[in-house]
Amino acid sequence: MSEPSIGVARLLGVPEGDVTLWRAGVTVPKSTDCERLSELLDVDVAWLCASEA
Question: Distance between alpha carbon 47 and the CA centroid of its chain, in Å?
């Protein structure tokens, strides 16, 4: 795990592996995690969690 993944996981209260998978583009956060992540990063939730086909 990388340091950023560990820190984000702790702040969001999710497993470190989840954050690693999000960062790799393997999975996407649940809507509640996406909302909290957008607040943490100070970015728009729609931008952060918009899926592209």
Answer: 13
Residue 18: domain span: 3-49
CA 19, 25, 27, 28 torsion-angle sign: positive
How many separate domains does the chain show? 1
Instruction: For 1-48, write each residue's pLDDT tens digit.
Output: 567 889 999 999 999 999 999 999 999 899 999 999 999 989 999 988
- The count of other CB atoms within 10 Å of the CB of residue 22 is 20
DSSP structural state of residue 27: S
Between CA 42 and CA 53 the distance in angstroms is: 25
CA 42 to mean position of chain CA atoms: 12
